[in-house]
Specification:
19% of the residues lie in helices and 17% in strands. By secondary structure, the chain is of the alpha+beta class. The protein has a domain of 95 residues: Beta Barrel (OB fold (Dihydrolipoamide Acetyltransferase, E2P)), CATH 2.40.50. A five-stranded mixed beta barrel has the order 1-2-3-5-4. A hairpin with a 7-residue loop joins strand 4 and strand 5. The longest helix has 14 residues. The protein is flat and about 105 Å long.
C-alpha cells in the first residue's frame, strides 16, 4: 500500500536548509515498518504523522483489498417466488385534498402493518355511505389486496376484499392475520369430512388403547 508521510517544516528547518529536511524524511521512511499481516496498519514513529484519512490501505486495485474493506453489491435479476400474499388489514379514510380529481375516485387504505405501503382503493369498493359518513368506518377493519404499484406513484393501488368488523375484537383480528399470511381457514370439503368416523359418538376401542401410549 502507498504511504502518505507528512513532515512539519519550522524555523529550525529553514536554518538548516532543504538538505536537512530531506534527511529527516529519509530517516522517517527508513524507520517506518509495515506489517503485512495487519492489512496495512502502520505503527507511528517520531517525525511521521498519519491523518485520519489514512486509516485504510491506499490500493488502486480493489482486488488487492482485504474483505473487511469491501462492500458487496448485487442486482435482482429474477423473482423466483412471490411469498407475500399482497393482502393487508387496515382502515380506510378519505383523501386529504378534497378538491383533487383523485378524491372523487379513490380512498386511502392505511395498513395496520407499517411494513406494507398505503394503498389507493376505488370508492366503488367502499361502503355506499362512506363518503357521507367516513367517521362511522374509522374503527372498521378491512382487507385490501395490492394489485399494482406504478413507478411514478408514492402509493400502491389495490382493491378492498371485505369488511372484517370492529378493530380490537378477536374474530376480525384473527381473520385478518390469517388472510395476511395466506392461511386457508375455509370449511373442510366433503371429501375430507368423509375420512372421519361416521358413527357418532366415536370412541377409541379398548384394543387401540392397549397398544397406544396415553398422553391425555
Amino acid at each position: 500500500p502507498d504511504v502518505i508521510i507528512e513532515a512539519q517544516f519550522d524555523d529550525n528547518d529553514a536554518e538548516h536548509g532543504q538538505d536537512h529536511l530531506q534527511d529527516t524524511l529519509t530517516d522517517g521512511v527508513k524507520k517506518l515498518s509495515l506489517d503485512t499481516g495487519e492489512k496495512g496498519k502502520a505503527a507511528g514513529v517520531t517525525g511521521v504523522h498519519r491523518t485520519k484519512q489514512d486509516d485504510g490501505p491506499k490500493v488502486n486495485d480493489p482486488r488487492l483489498l482485504p474483505d473487511e474493506f469491501l462492500q458487496r453489491t448485487a442486482k435482482v435479476v429474477y423473482i423466483l417466488e412471490k411469498k407475500h400474499s399482497r393482502a393487508a388489514t387496515g382502515f380506510i379514510k378519505l383523501l386529504a385534498d378534497r378538491n383533487s380529481e383523485l378524491f372523487k375516485r379513490c380512498a386511502m387504505f392505511s395498513p395496520v402493518d407499517h411494513r406494507v405501503p398505503r394503498v389507493y382503493v376505488p370508492l366503488a369498493d367502499c361502503p355506499p355511505d362512506f363518503v357521507t359518513k367516513p367517521e362511522a368506518y374509522s374503527q372498521m377493519l378491512f382487507i385490501c389486496r395490492i394489485v399494482d404499484w406504478k413507478e411514478d406513484s408514492n402509493f400502491a393501488s389495490g382493491q378492498l376484499c371485505k369488511s372484517l368488523g370492529q378493530a380490537g375484537e378477536i374474530e376480525p383480528e384473527s381473520e385478518g392475520i390469517l388472510t395476511e399470511y395466506g392461511v386457508d381457514f375455509s370449511d373442510f370439503s366433503p371429501e375430507v369430512l368423509e375420512c372421519l368416523p361416521q358413527n357418532l359418538p366415536w370412541v377409541i376401542s379398548p384394543a387401540e388403547l392397549d397398544k397406544r401410549r396415553d398422553l391425555r
